[in-house]
Design a protein that fits this description.
single chain, 198 residues, alpha+beta, five-stranded antiparallel β-sheet, 11 strands, 32% helix, elongated
Length: 198
C-alpha cells in the first residue's frame, strides 16, 4: 500500500446524551509530540470538563496508535474513538472527545455509544483526503549528464526537493513509493551518477 487516508484540517462534532455533552475534535497529526501538544492544549482549554479522552493513529502502515480513557471506565472512551478511526481507515489523526457531565450516569454501554457517536460526528465533518507514501533519493552526477537526468525527471515526474551545482551536481527527488524502483533503475543508467544513501 503506497497511499493512505487522513483528514485535511481540524473538524468538530458534538453529541449529547442525558444532559452530558460530548465535544469531539478530529485533528491531523504526524508525530507523538504533536499528539501530546494538542492533548495538553485541549485539556487546558476545557479545564472545567470532567474528562478529556482521546485516541490517535500514526503512520501509513497504521501500526502506531493509542487510546486513552482519561478516568472513564476502562475501554469506554478511548477504544470507541479508536474504533471510529479504524472503521474509516484513517491515519495521522488524533481525535479528542471532551465530556461535560450532565449529572446522570450513562453506564458503560451508554458511554461507549456516546464516545463512538461523538468521534463519528467529528469525522463526518472532516474532509477526508488520500495521500501517497513517498520516498526520497539523493544522487550526484557530472554536469555534462544534466540533460539525461532532466529528461528522466520530466518523464517520471518526481518532485525536486533540492538541487546543487558545484563541481559535481546533486539532486534530491521525491516520488510515490511504488514508482521509486523505476526511477532509480533509469537513473542508474546515467554515467557517473552515484546515489547518496541516507
Amino acid at each position: 500500500m503506497d497511499s493512505y487516508k487522513t483528514i485535511k484540517a481540524t473538524s468538530e462534532g458534538t453529541y449529547s446524551e442525558k444532559r452530558s455533552k460530548f465535544l469531539a475534535f478530529a485533528i491531523p497529526v504526524t508525530t507523538v509530540e504533536e499528539v501530546k501538544q494538542y492533548v495538553a492544549e485541549y485539556q487546558k482549554k476545557y479545564y472545567d470538563a470532567r474528562h478529556c479522552c482521546y485516541a490517535y493513529m500514526l503512520g501509513h502502515e497504521r501500526l502506531d496508535f493509542r487510546a486513552n480513557d482519561n478516568g472513564e471506565p476502562s475501554g469506554t472512551a478511548g477504544k470507541p474513538i479508536l474504533g471510529q478511526i479504524n472503521s474509516n481507515e484513517l491515519t495521522n489523526i488524533l481525535i479528542i472527545v471532551v465530556r461535560y457531565f450532565g449529572g446522570i450516569k450513562l453506564g458503560t454501554s451508554g458511554l461507549i455509544v456516546a464516545y463512538k457517536a461523538a468521534a463519528a460526528e467529528a469525522i463526518a465533518a472532516a474532509e477526508i483526503i488520500e495521500k501517497t507514501v513517498d520516498e526520497e533519493v539523493t544522487f550526484m552526477f557530472e554536469y555534462p549528464f544534466m540533460n539525461d537526468v532532466m529528461r528522466i525527471v520530466k518523464e517520471e515526474q518526481p518532485d525536486i526537493i533540492s538541487q546543487g551545482y558545484d563541481t559535481d551536481c546533486s539532486m534530491t527527488l521525491r516520488i510515490r513509493k511504488d514508482s521509486m524502483p523505476k526511477l532509480r533503475a533509469r537513473l542508474e543508467k546515467v554515467e557517473t551518477l552515484s546515489f547518496v544513501e541516507e
